[in-house]
Amino acid sequence: MKKTKIISLMLAALLMFCMLAACNDSTSDSNVKKIGVMQFAEFDALQKAYDGFVDGLKEAGYEDGKNIEITKLSAAADTANCPTIADTLINNGSDLIYAIATPSVSAIKEKTTTIPVLFTAVTDPVKSGFVADVNNPGGNISGTSDMNPVKEQIDLLKAILPDAKTVAVLYCSSESNSAAQYALAKAQIEALGMTCIEKTISAIDEAKSAVESLAGVADAIYVPTDNTISDSMTSVSAAANAVKLPLIVGEAGMVVNGALATYGIDYYRLGKQTAEMAVKLLKADKPLDEIAKMAVVYQTDCVYAVNTDTAAALGITIPEEILSKATIYPSK
Question: Is the model's pTM score more than 0.90?
């Protein structure tokens, strides 16, 4: 009888321990914040923006699989995939959504006003309709802009190619970010006494023929941070290099994939800047109130990048004052 009572007490104690453990697990799970990520495409700039975001969160004490749960989905550079991904992230109970590139933000904006949304790789968040004002967004969306130093990039083109007289600006006509950069590029190209040619495509399979059509017409091509072209930069740069047209571009990932040079922002650091905003939201008692007054963040200090293999193939000598400050690709 005593033995039975002892066993019963042991079982009761074990059951109580299991119940307490389950309670603790339940409490722990409720404290795990869910972060949904929609990355429009997998090219270098957007991937760096994601990596910087994850690393920034980890440095601040938020690590996937521990106190946060990150669900990352890619639209594979197809806007048609974005609404379904938005629904998935919302239905997954995301506490915060990180939207990388304009098409991602556009899709999520149409789906929710009750989940805080942080964007990155968006050039003009006001013109895109994401925020009312960059200093006072006023809704559930804010983030970091990748507005390029377009003027300085055209200045770089002129410094490398002082004899250039005609510059083509190549971009996808459906991307509002690229259209905004085109306007800035055109103004600076003409301010420097050169002629500007607008060359648009509607799909990436038009890029090669668009580039080839500029041979003998333009002296150089400027490509802004255009998602469509960035996603196939290797083939675009190959086409340009084949017809001896130098490419000055919007960001360093394009230089890695064969373009000549850039003076642009650091997307990895842009991701980290977005992570700093995310940490404030994760700690906030009322994240929707917090994000409504959270100013859009811009990056001011940019970096040079030069592809010396491309320069050699085109027979172009990069001025030493640029080369000495640049990150050189391909890495030796």
Answer: no
